Amino acid sequence: MKTRIIGTGSCLPKTVVTNDDLSKIMDTSDEWISSRTGIKERHLAVEETTASMSIEAAKRAMENANVQAQEIDLIIVGTVSADFVTPSCACEVQAAIGADSAVAFDINAACSGFMFALNIADAYIRAGVYRTALILGAETLSKIIDWEDRSTCVLFGDGAGAAVVRADETCGLLAFDQGSDGKKGEVLACPGRTNNNPLVKTDRTLRYVHMDGQEVYKFAVTTVPASLQKTIEKAGLTAADIDYFALHQANIRIIQSVSKRLHVSDDKFPISLDHCGNISAASVPILLDEMNRKGLLKPGMKVALSGFGGGLTWASAVVEW
Ligand code: ACO
Known about the structure:
Blueprint: E1 2-11, E2 15-18, H1 19-25, H2 30-37, E3 41-44, H3 50-65, E4 74-78, H4 89-97, E5 103-107, H5 113-126, E6 132-140, H6 150-153, E7 158-168, E8 173-180, E9 188-189, E10 210-211, H7 213-234, E11 244-247, H8 252-261, H9 273-276, H10 283-293, E12 302-309, E13 313-320
Parallel strand pairs: 4-5, 4-6, 11-12
Antiparallel strand pairs: 1-7, 2-3, 6-7, 8-13, 9-10, 12-13
Helix pairs in contact: 3-4, 7-8
The structure holds acetyl coenzyme *A.
Residues 28, 32-33, 36-37, 111, 150-151, 154-155, 188, 211, 213-214, 216-217, 220, 250-251, 253, 278, 308-309 line the site of acetyl coenzyme *A (ACO).
């Protein structure tokens, strides 16, 4: 039994903020941002929330998969920016779409969140526990970014992506690799939650995302190609057999470096970061949905997916479409 992606959906907030718009409110420029990252613009949530974007992305994925809410057994949202501590974003999605018999929960694996959700769904499906799952990556990073730190705030955007996955006898997920390195957690961190206990002194300045960009870069350009290579080999394939590589959209230089290390042409690495920025857990499913809706993905194609980021965490998969 395999886990097959049978539908995708995504949702981006209405408000688009270009690099030039940012240069009007902080000391930066389109030239600095686009030459170092490939990002030209990003969508930022003003009226939207993590849950509202997730609900829309979920509905689009269900429509694309032709799946009704009653058929969904499991909902997992990968997110570091859910609207509430509880209820989870996944429970909000469950209520809004009416998936009354589903089990719903969030997971935190930062930019690998969607990929970890895919692996969890796959384990349940292969074990015969559930048949149909809705998995999402959704973020409102704009609310946890330090807008006074130009070295991080220009990198991120908001949005949600979803996929419906189902048990299938013929094709689907061929191989998976995932890992974590908690010892390097500080290179990309968001202390976030402050302590309300009056007996505890809390440093309230440590609330936002902070990153050692160069360490993250080194981690990504070594771990991601190695993880992809391992996964492709596990699937019994070579890099040349892969039709597309859908990578977490952190930075164009990381993606170019991965393509070089795998000796695969850049054309096989579709990009959404130019108009989305880095949306952490939502990057991979949004990119996949864009590829799907453009008609790039044909039955039988082999697609390699990879997410990597805070934790540190990483995960790769090869799927047969
Ligand atoms: N606009 C203009 N200048 C800026 C900006 C900005 N937005 N941000 C920083 N600078 C300045 C700095 O102040 C510094 O100036 P100085 O030399 O006078 O001190 C100069 O630019 C260089 O700063 P660095 O931080 O060293 O910039 P670097 O060349 O390392 O590029 C970047 C930063 C693009 C983030 C790079 O480290 C990188 O590619 N990192 C990869 C990790 C990444 O993309 N992370 C994204 C999120 S993590 C994830 O999703 C996995």
